[in-house]
Design goal:
homodimer, about 130 residues, mainly beta, six-stranded antiparallel beta sheet, about 0% helix
Chain lengths: ~130, ~130
């Protein structure tokens, strides 16, 4: 079990090629015992962005504050605070801050580059509503 | 790909035994093509709580607004906006609103009741910082 305010986790620069003025924190990861996926928060300055790239795993994102655009091969898709964003595996993408304030978003990734799986969890298919 | 404001997804009551004044929305789920895990938001009224229960899968949680307590077998652990919470598989727990305003938190669950896996994804083990 773990309860931590996001500001208590280390803020580390994103140094990947193509990234600009972006930092992130690992909130829940394998070090915490999480068996399947990791929860991170990204903090992107007003002129910042993540790399325009692709990979074999998905992103599930929630925008905590600020506004931005999801850069795709079909153009930029705007988003703002309170938006949930799903990025498919294999889809080229970048997250850009298009506002005047820091953009903060959660980004969840799987530990493994997993193929689609059939659900064995009744709480994961919208047939249940528990927590 | 999907971009949706959380308020655009249906708010459905949590009717599980032991739940009180709690509703939730499925933000990203298998219907969206998400292969591994589901992102939901829970909205708990001031006198509300989720069931005190356990199951074989983990929760990764981020508190969007409000304050509450994680009920555990070792007592209540307070939390507030901006906290990340990890609940281990097999740990008895409930989320309770302890404030005067609605408590809203994201809760991510795996599609499968998965056992711990070795990472094959360099972006999931804190050795990389990409998005």
């Amino acid at each position: 079990m773990k309860i931590v305010h996001y500001t208590q986790e280390e803020l580390v620069p994103v140094n990947a090629e193509g990234a600009q003025n972006t930092k992130m924190r690992w909130l829940i990861a394998q070090k915490d015992g999480a068996p399947n996926f990791a929860l991170r928060i990204f903090e992107v300055e007003p002129d910042g962005h993540t790399p325009f790239h692709m990979h074999d795993w998905e992103h599930e994102v929630f925008v905590v504050s600020g506004k931005g655009a999801l850069q795709t091969e079909e153009g930029d898709k705007p988003f703002a605070e309170g938006d949930a964003i799903y990025v498919d595996p294999g889809m080229r993408h970048a997250f850009k801050n298009t506002g005047d304030e820091p953009l903060k978003f959660l980004c969840i990734i799987p530990h493994e580059d997993a193929a689609p799986k059939k659900s064995a969890n009744p709480f994961a298919d919208e047939s249940a509503d528990n927590c």
